[in-house]
Here is the input.
Amino acid sequence: MSDALLRHAPAYTTCAYCPKMCRFACPVAEAAPSESLSTWGKMVAGHLVQTQQRPLDEDAARALHACTGCMRCSTFCKHENQVGPALFAARGATVEAGLQPRGAATTLATFTQSQNPFGRELATLVAARRALGPVKFQLFPGCSALVKAPALVDDVLEVARRFGAPMGVARVSSRCCGYPLYAAGAHDAFREHAAAMADAMSHVPELTVLDPGCALTFLKVYPAFGVKLQTRVHTLVEVLADHLPHAPATPPLDEVVGYHDACHLGRGLGQYDQPRALLHRAVRQVTEGASVRREGGCAGGGGLLPRTMPDVAVEVARRQAAEVTPSPDVAVVTACPTSRRMFERAGKKSYDLVTLLRRWTEGT
Ligand code: SF4
Ligand code: SF4
Here is the structure.
């Protein structure tokens, strides 16, 4: 039995003996109504495998992968049980047994070969966006933004300049933070990757991180794996909110938008006020869903769910978009590039916060 399963045994057991108090909270269980995919059902699978009361088979492997790591169940749990990390750890046993769902296995294989989940050579993308003039902040966009949304990186650089906080893409951005290894349960490989990344970052005193998933990985997951960063890490919204007094005195756009609290930024890092401060300067009106901040819903992009259960992931995003705003005319705004892509896949009009800030500062 793997050490990771043993380390998280108390978490599995806590859920196994719970009368499913957070049954309503899991976005995956709501999108794919099945008791075995509820928080309780998934953790019971972990408990039974860990205590060797059931074999690790394909059904158990599927259940262990049906989690975005959104932490919403922990919010409503009296024990604040850490379900996401426990399920991610259990995925390690599926790697050992050759029972990973296909999407997770191919992600891991691509990462092992290319050191990022896209199989792309990132150094060229980074070099194309290196600063020509002096910069105040080193930007770490995250490989997802570099590969999937390079225009978003340009938006960041332009908005930062207009806020009096010029940024350049840090050379170290040609490496992935390692989150896919963590989410795939390849935890020995993750620890090794994190240590190498910390070493590569050691000459950068301060890093501004666009993707909240990368920021959470640096700030919370690395320390949980015993990896210490010498670099001070801030999120992009933190830096921009600090510089809001220096933003152009442009009137807000005459638009109504809905705001989605991304899980890694909100529940993960407690950053609820900074994106709202930016958004309320940029547009005339902001609407929100019934559940916000610590209780806010999930967009389905984490935990490799878009790769292991793509239809369920899109349904999670569709439901969250409808929760933020049922109106097809009102766009959902989020500070997480992965969440925005999920809303787009769900057919919802959506903007990255920084793209909206660019339009505001340009008065377009
Ligand atoms: S996370 Fe908490 S509330 Fe939910 S099933 Fe586990 S112990 Fe119960
Ligand atoms: S972390 Fe999120 S997706 Fe995972 S079991 Fe809890 S509520 Fe469900």
User: Anything to note?
Assistant: Strands lie at 137-140, 167-169, 206-209, 232-235, 253-260, 283-287, 331-334, 350-352. The radius of gyration is 20 Å. Residues 122-242 form one domain.
